[in-house]
Every structure is written in C-alpha cells, then in structure tokens.
Amino acid sequence: MKFIHTADWHLGQSLYQNDRAHEHLAFLGWLKEKIKEHGADALLIAGDIFDNPNPSAASQRMLYQFLKELNGQNPDLQMVIIAGNHDSAYRIEAPVPLLEDMKVYVKGTVKRNEDGAINYNDLVVRLYGADDSPVWCMAVPYLRQGDLPSVDEKPESNIYNEGVKTLYSNLLNHIAEQNTHNDPVIAMGHLQASGVALNSGDESERKLIGGIEGVKGYEIFPGGITYTALGHIHRAQKVAQRENIRYSGSPLPMSFAEENYRHGVNLVEIKKGEPVKIEKLEFEPVVRLVSVPQRLQQIDGDASDNLKDVLKMLKSLPKGEPDMYAPYLQVRVSFRQMIPDLRQKVEKALEGYYVRLTKIVTDNVNEFKPEDFESVSYDNLSKIEPLEMARRAFQIKNLQMGEELERLFNEVVKEINNEN
C-alpha cells in the first residue's frame, strides 16, 4: 500500500495581511499531481487543515473542491483527515455523511458510548492497498484533556502524557482483537512530541497546553505500529530517532522562522513483512520568504547603526513591479540609538524592487537588563515624571528615545495637562 502523509496546511492563513490563497492552491494542485504520479492508495492529513476554527467560506470551498477533484481523478483513493488544534472539531465533522460517499473519513472528536466509555471503534479506519491488502489506521484527532481516559495520577508524572499514552494503547489493543492476520497498523496524531526541533522565535509552532503538551513519542507509539503520521510541528522530522515516526511538516512556511525549512509531504509504502519505505517529496512554494541580511549583524566601530549597509544590500534584490508572487521581505537593522523614520527609509529604498516588505526586525546593541531597575511601588509611581517612565519603557525594550522623540513626547504631555 502507498499513501501520502501531509499536515498543517493552514488554509486561510494570511502573512502580514497578505492573502495566501494562490499559494495554497498551487500546493493543492501539486499534491493532486503527486498522488496521481505515484499511484497513492490513500491520503492522510494529520490536522490543522484550516488556520482558525472559524474558516472563511473561501477556505472551506478550497478544501472541498480539492477533495471532489481528487475523487474524480481516482474514485478508489481513500482519504483520512483528523482535526488539529487550529481546527473546529465539530465544524470539520459536519459534512461527514457526504464525504464518506467519496471515501473521505474525518475524525474531529473523540466520541463516547452511552456508558461514558471512549468509542475506540470510531477512531479506526480500515484502508486497503491496490491488491486489497488491509491496513488498520488509528485516526486520532488533537486531544484535549477531557478526551483522555482516566489514569492513575502519580507524583511527578505528566498526566496529559499518561492519558495520551493510555488512549493509544487501548486503541492498539482494540485493533489487535480484530487484527487476526497481523496486518500493518498506522497511527495518526496531532501533538507535540518531546525533543522535536523547533526554531527559536517561531510564532506559529505554539505550545498546545501550557507546559504539559510534550508527550513522549517513543512511549506512545510502540514498535508494533508500522508508521506514525503526525501533525502540528512545521519542520519535517522524525521523532526519537525512529524512522517510522514522522512529522511531514507544513507545505508552506508560516513565518520567517520557517523560511529555510524543506517543505513537502511524505510518500510511504508498506508491504507486509518488509521495512516501511519513506520518501520525502519536496514542494517549492510559489512565493519565497527573504530576509536581508540573513541574520542580525553587529555594528562596526563607532557607527550608530548599520542602516546604510542594509540599504546597500537591498539594492541586490530583483527589480520589478511587485505582484502576488513577489517574495515576502523581512529587513533586519541594528542600532545604538532609535531611528525615528526607519520604515520610511526602507520603503523608499525598495521602490522599484520585486519584493513585498512585511516586517522590519530591529536590534539595539546597547546592553540593558530590566532587573537593573528597582521595583516601583504604587505609592511611588505617581512621583515619577512621565518622561522618565517613557525612558524606562524604551530601555526595557532595549531602545533609546532620542532627543527628538523626547521633545515630541513632552509636547504631548504638555497638551494633555493643558486640556485637564
């Protein structure tokens, strides 16, 4: 059996107010061709299909149009979709009666029987290869604390990790009772495994459940599982050095922290009694993310900033009138004293260049530690002059107000005092 593992599409996401629908459409078109080219029997989407729980009508139409086209291209293709933490568990399940006619199986919630016990049978999907060889799929959506089975709470134990571990263990046992021919078992999940590689400063790979979300992948997914298809982490990687536990990564970079990730999907081939084969199919996003310079640079000598050098670097960018395929640009500037008209200078330098400025990252090289300030009591707060309070606020952010900004600030304070 061949299947493609993908996750974290985030349909509907915008990058600094830039609509990315055409980028997602390019990926979906590429994915449709790869499914046809490799003769995949199934498509597994491991959560975060949408960027938020209340996706736009256009985003939903994009998904369902894609599923319809896939079904028309290959009526035998099986598709399994689980909800991620960005998805609405109930909204994503709403069209299930229609989708199952197209062999699209959607799991958004963990359902319970009348006695309150977890309905493990609902989390199992039987998939079949081209030769009708069966594969058992554990389709487990993003798990919240209330979804988990009760476990004995032990001192210093991670109750969330133990609950997730128990759920997958119970589900595997449930399958084992029916899997009399020892057919392959694959698992799906949307979670953060401990020890995964994350880029510092990444705004998109947020922690799931404050401090307890890092589950132990090597415990939760035992050796009896042929392949584990995970979502949530945007960098493609294996877990706990296990080749068969994988994050496929996101098809598009969701932030500048991800600009150097290798994007794409995993093509997986399973044959009973043989090692699983995994191939990375790389997708080149149609819109690039570019940072100038590549990283924050130190200021040389006695210079107050490196803006002049940065503006020279911008001149190496391609020229042209920006359109929706122009690269997203992030500019990094270091300084010792604040540059009041920084954005205007950067925008002026970029006139006639084929990029879209999205973000300016600044770095004040003056060393400052917020703890250098003594704490201020409520009684003493009113005794501090507004200008001094503003200076402190700037210093906490590693910035300096500068004489011109201080003058303008004092004028505003004066006008407020006159009005009162």
Fill in the keyword field for this structure.
11 helices; six-stranded mixed beta sheet; 420 residues; 19 strands; alpha/beta
Quick summary of this structure?
With 420 residues, the chain is of the alpha/beta class. The protein is built from eleven helices and 19 strands. It is 28% helix and 22% strand.
What does this structure look like?
A six-stranded mixed sheet has the order 6-5-4-1-15-16. The chain contains eleven helices and 19 strands. The protein is 28% helix and 22% strand. With 420 residues, the protein is an alpha/beta fold. Helix 1 (21-38) runs parallel beside helix 2 (57-73). The model is unreliable at 206-212 and 367-379 (pLDDT under 50). The protein has helices at 21-38, 57-73, 89-93, 96-99, 159-178, 217-220, 307-314, 342-349, 378-381, 386-396, 403-419, and strands at 2-6, 14-15, 18-19, 42-46, 78-82, 104-107, 124-128, 134-139, 185-190, 192-193, 214-215, 227-231, 237-239, 242-247, 264-269, 277-282, 289-292, 328-335, 356-364. The termini are far apart. The chain is elongated, with a radius of gyration of 26 Å.
Strand content: 15-25%
* Rg estimate, integer Å: 26 Å
Order of helices and strands: EEEHEHEHHEEEHEEEHEEEEEEHEHEHHH
**Distance linking N and C termini:** 76 Å
The helix content, as a percent range, equals 25-40%
Shape: elongated
Main sheet: which strands, in order across?
6-5-4-1-15-16
Mean pLDDT: 88
Structural class: alpha/beta
The parts where pLDDT drops under 50 for at least 5 residues are 206-212, 367-379
Number of strands: 19
Largest sheet, described in full?
Answer: 6 strands, mixed
Instruction: List the total number of helices.
Output: 11
